[in-house]
Amino acid sequence: MQLEITKELFQYTFGYSAKLDVNEKYPLGMKVIYEPTAYLFDTDTFLICEKGSEESEYLGDTIPFPIVKQHEAMHAFVDSINNKRITNIFKHLPEQDFGKVFWGVFDDGGENFRAYHRFEESCRYSVIIKWCEDNNIPYYIKDKDIIKLLQYRPY
């Protein structure tokens, strides 16, 4: 059996699950909130489920599914840019200011914004591939868009 790396699998790398919060204080009476979630991967069945869920109790051998925190992807993106001006902006920046400054620099609504998001997607797929290789999980990629994205280099 081989694991197909898909766009659905990609979603688990965010480490969040959507929950519906029903409350009268919201204009429509409900709101979607995102809660941090750890996912487990069953090495026998290749199923993924939330850690601590009823489903997870019935799984055999599980390992944590990889997540990519957004700030990790943002740091990797800055490191991938061969530009002294950009490097100097982020070089001595305190971590608590990193996100705000990052979006101030790259959220131009144009090419820089798209370049970051393509890079982040590529990073997430690359982490899945490395995780498969590190855990001896045979995998394949059929989706041509994912293959193309993995070849993406921002600058």
Summarize the structure.
By secondary structure, the protein is of the alpha+beta class. It has helices at 7-11, 54-57, 70-80, 84-91, 95-106, 111-134, 144-150; strands spanning 3-4, 16-22, 30-36, 39-42, 48-50, 62-64, 139-140.
Report on this structure:
The chain has helices at 7-11, 54-57, 70-80, 84-91, 95-106, 111-134, 144-150, and strands spanning 3-4, 16-22, 30-36, 39-42, 48-50, 62-64, 139-140. The protein is α+β, with helices and mostly antiparallel strands and 155 residues long. The chain has one domain. Helix 3 (70-80) crosses helix 6 (111-134).
Question: Helix and strand layout, with pairings?
Answer:
Blueprint: E1 3-4, H1 7-11, E2 16-22, E3 30-36, E4 39-42, E5 48-50, H2 54-57, E6 62-64, H3 70-80, H4 84-91, H5 95-106, H6 111-134, E7 139-140, H7 144-150
Parallel strand pairs: 1-7
Antiparallel strand pairs: 2-3, 4-5, 4-6
Count of domain modules: 1
Uncertain runs are none
Distance between the termini: 37 Å
Number of separate helices = 7
**What structural class do helix, strand and pairing data support?**
alpha+beta
What is the beta-strand fraction?
Answer: 15-25%
Sheet with the most strands, sense and barrel status: 3 strands, antiparallel
Mean pLDDT: 89
Strand order of the largest sheet: 5-4-6
Coarse morphology:
globular
Order of helices and strands: EHEEEEHEHHHHEH
Helical fraction equals 40-55%
Radius of gyration over all CA atoms, rounded:
18 Å
